[in-house]
Amino acid sequence: MKRPVRIAITGAAGSISHSLLFKIATGEMIGQDQPVILQLIEMPQAMEPLRGIAMELEDCAFPLLHSISLHDNFEEGVVGAHYVLLIGAKPRGPGMERSELIATNAPIFAHQGQAINKLANRDVKVLVVGNPANTNALIASRNAPDLSPAQFTALTRLDHNRTRGIMANHTGANPKDIRRVTVWGNHSSTQFPDLHHATIYGEPALPQIDQDWYRDTFIEKIQKRGSAIIDARGHSSAASAAQAIINHMHDWINGTPENDWVSMGIVSDGSYGIEKGIIYSFPVRCDYGRYQIVQGLEISEFAREKMTLSEQELLTEMETVKDLLPKETGESHRNLSVCLRSGTTLYDDGISLPKKQYLQTDRVR
Ligand code: NAX
After folding, report:
1. Pick the residue with more confidence: 211 or 98?
2. What's the pTM value of the predicted model, to 2 decimals?
3. Is the C-beta atom of 238 inside 6 A of ligand 1?
4. Pick from 7, 8, 70, 242: CA 20 to 30 A from residue 357's CA?
5. What is the CATH number of domain 5-154?
6. Which CATH class name applies to 157-318?
């Protein structure tokens, strides 16, 4: 049995976490041989519901769940973390503009970036889920000068999975036979679900579907899927977001399948002409706990236009939060050639958080 790893999660009593925590504890995220320590972080007013969730986790008797600690303070909860999932964010209220949402959440992610920089494991892998995910990831990363920008990512895997799922339903193929789809850009309605390089049963996907349907219906359907789910359910995607988080982290840690790639929001190194330094969703392949952008894909005029639109949106968002982006990290974000750092050097670091400890077992020490 391996030594346990520390996973710090914000928004741990929220809807996404309610599906996610149980999947992590069964080993779906990292592996069936990897014990986990959950460091759950919430707002002070949500600590009691969080305690209830910890009780439920305990009641599942998961063999891989080494211990749980509960925190209403980010600094305390992120100590020694090998993985940090930033899910908690202020939700968009009725009539709230996207720019207001950005401004409200920005200082939280600046603060969290600083704390991760100081207190997390040096090989930490960070995934930002809370919206606006790409820009929040940028803020966190720019506020972590001692870590590599490549250690910070934003979730666009839900959009990637939606692209495959809806294509599978449309064509009758099994989702596993739909490969090499890409979601470019921002996790917003400007994202571009690209099927130009996709395959179905190993053959190019586009000739197998109606071009007008792809351009006029499919793209918008993916872009607006989040809103459609809110309209139908009255709440934003939760279980599918949890599944996407599992997929994103699993593939980052364990590698992507042969003959395929995934979409991840990562710092742009200028590939495909995208402005360096923004967090943009690219097609990536992962191996040994690292990722690299898939190079050499042909970009049509149609695709370029859509990719640029999303890039422009991210540049505008960056402008909105520029006061929270320290100048000294600008250079490291603009001059990143390959996205490599953070392998799988994971070990028990001997840190214990006794006061906040909820569940402790000694099976895997
Ligand atoms: P919920 O409102 O159910 O839960 C959020 C939880 O976060 C709450 O319990 C709240 O108390 C906590 N929280 C808020 N600020 C916090 C902070 N500073 N530190 C610790 N905890 C904090 O939202 P949920 O449905 O779980 O969604 C969470 C976030 O994910 C939202 O911002 C949502 O917009 C975003 N999403 C992002 C997706 C993506 O693909 N990137 C898809 C799903 C989702 O829409």
Report:
1. 211
2. 0.94
3. yes
4. 242
5. 3.40.50.720
6. alpha beta
